[in-house]
Amino acid sequence: QVQPVESGGGLVQAGGSLRLSCSATGGAFSSYVMGWFRQAPGKERQFVAAITRSGITYYADSAKGRFTISTDNARTTMTLQMNGLKPDDTAVYYCAESDVDGSRYPVEYHDWGQGTQVTVSS
Hints:
single chain, mainly beta, four-stranded antiparallel β-sheet
């Protein structure tokens, strides 16, 4: 069974950039959709971005124009390039898979990673 592992988080100043990675241990991601979510303390898990097997991408309004999601051809690694970071982007970022096209709901995703912390200072 493929287990996602996130990496690339850290502390960055507002306006800075980070590149998150989600690597598939034990194989390749097989579901139709791969997605990124984030969860800040005391808040619900929130959709950030997703990419389908055919390369179609969709983003939360808060991520549009600043974040870019991509995968390698083998679908073993998914990345989230985050530019223009804001303090409101501070959260633990998770990757997961879904078989529901266009899904933005955590309940429709499975095989979650452990998350990587992103902290943006003002």
